[in-house]
Design goal:
The chain is of the alpha/beta class. It folds into two domains: about 10-30 and about 290-395, Aspartate Aminotransferase, domain 1 (Alpha-Beta Complex), CATH 3.90.1150.10; about 35-285, Type I PLP-dependent aspartate aminotransferase-like (Major domain) (Aspartate Aminotransferase, domain 2, 3-Layer(aba) Sandwich). Helix content is about 35%, strand content about 15%. A hairpin with a 3-residue loop joins strand 14 (about 350-355) and strand 15. Helix 4 packs parallel to helix 10. The chain is globular and about 70 Å long. It binds pyridoxal-5'-phosphate.
């Protein structure tokens, strides 16, 4: 009997992967699914070409954010009708945070950790400034978060899986502790969705947001999503009162009246071509079991760590050693990590670098297997053993790392 119910040979065949490249950066930008070009082309021709503005109804463009939101909901243990697709993750974080804060008007603290992604922290700082009522962002070390959840905290805002190290918070335990102190939770699923099983209802999460261009493979600039738990959906405010979140957008009223539930989290016109790409990407996920995905991811990350530690003594593991305490990426510290990553990329292994000294590798079982893991270890060993990274052209910093 096959070890997994998910056919990982089939999933691999659903992607275009350039010849001669080992792609360990699907945690930053997933590769192109085979079905995507035709699906996007269809949204252009015949939909846009022949239907013109009628496409909003006839081609289902207008309701695509809800429709795809429901598909995402089913993948993250959320109730149907409580996930909305649109905008970017930064914007969805801002909206969710503003909604959560408004539900705890007597409190002034947003608690996060100092490893959180900068955009999340910047959004919180900006919102605090806009509120101008003494609301402030407090960040502590990731392992100290639980100890800082007090009755002062309005919102606990965390990214489940740390973008640098892959360290994973315990969503369920932290959410329970936040609730015990009367605080609400906002979970960023950027490095969780498509990487580890997520069950928002089981965790009791209040708000969540995530993106679709990383593990989900919906393409550069693909939209984000937001989740609002059923108990907040009917009375959560949206800081961004766009016309598409209005109860009657085509009544063009002067006054804002929010639409029901999560629909009010829509802002403006949705990106139809990107939604077509997201739809094609989600089709692949219909045939993936998240427990299989997780088991496979652990096999691959364990194999990579063992290989690198045996053969590249210069590199020091930055990710948790316990696979259950990390997501689907593995990071190593190396002082010349930037140059080493440039050398790796020049030799066909694509990972990325995160300041100050982190070499980051994403493991995406849909299209990465043992062969790629072993190939990457082999090339990394050659680069480290021969100091092949020590060349001026690998040390020139690009604008995107
Ligand atoms: C990737 C990522 C983002 C990016 O936000 P965008 O608005 O989509 O650019 C935000 N937060 C986290 C935690 C991320 O990993």
């Amino acid at each position: 009997m096959a070890k997994y119910s998910t056919d990982f040979d089939w999933t691999r065949d659903q992607f275009h992967l350039p010849e001669g490249v080992i792609y360990l950066d699907g945690n930053s930008l997933g590769p192109l699914p085979i079905a995507t070009p035709a699906r996007v082309a269809r949204a252009i021709e015949p939909e846009w070409r022949d239907m013109l503005i009628g496409g909003w109804v006839k081609a289902g463009w207008h309701l695509a954010p809800e429709r795809l939101g429901d598909r995402i909901a089913a993948m993250i243990g959320a109730e149907a009708g409580h996930v909305m697709v649109g905008d970017t993750l930064s914007i969805k974080i801002y909206q969710a945070l503003a909604a959560a804060i408004a539900l705890r008007p007597e409190r002034r603290v947003i608690l996060s950790d100092n490893g959180n992604f900068p955009s999340d922290l910047y959004m919180a700082q900006g919102l605090a400034k806009t509120l101008g009522n003494g609301t402030r962002l407090v960040t502590v070390a990731p392992e100290e978060v639980a100890d800082h959840i007090t009755d002062e905290v309005a919102v606990l805002m965390l990214t489940e899986v740390d973008y640098r190290t892959g360290r994973r918070h315990d969503m369920k335990t932290l959410t329970a502790k936040a609730h015990k102190h009367g605080a609400l939770t906002l979970w960023d699923l950027a490095h969780s969705f498509g990487a580890v099983p997520v069950d928002l209802s089981d965790c009791g999460a209040d708000f969540a947001a995530g993106c679709t261009y990383k593990y989900i493979n919906a393409g550069p600039g693909a939209p984000a999503f937001i989740y609002v738990a059923p108990e907040h959906a009917g009375h959560s405010q949206t800081a961004l009162q766009g016309w598409q979140g209005h109860a009657a957008p085509f009544a063009f009223e002067q006054e804002y009246h929010p639409a029901n539930a999560v629909t009010r989290m829509r802002v403006g016109t949705p990106p139809v071509l990107q939604l077509a790409a997201l739809e094609a990407a989600l089709d692949v996920w219909d045939r993936v079991d998240f427990n299989d995905l997780r088991a496979r991811s652990i096999e691959l990350t364990e194999r990579f760590i063992a290989g690198v530690e045996a053969r590249c003594p210069q590199l020091r593991l930055a990710s948790p050693r316990d696979p259950h305490a990390r997501g689907s990426q593995v990071s190593f510290h190396f002082e010349e990590g930037y140059a080493a990553m440039q050398a790796l990329i020049a030799h066909g292994v694509i990972g990325d670098f995160r300041a100050p000294d982190i070499m980051r590798f994403g493991f995406t079982p849909l299209y990465i297997g043992e062969r790629e893991v072993d190939g990457a270890v082999e090339i990394l060993t050659e680069i480290m053993a021969g100091d092949l990274w020590d060349r001026p052209e690998y040390k020139v910093k690009a604008i995107i790392t």
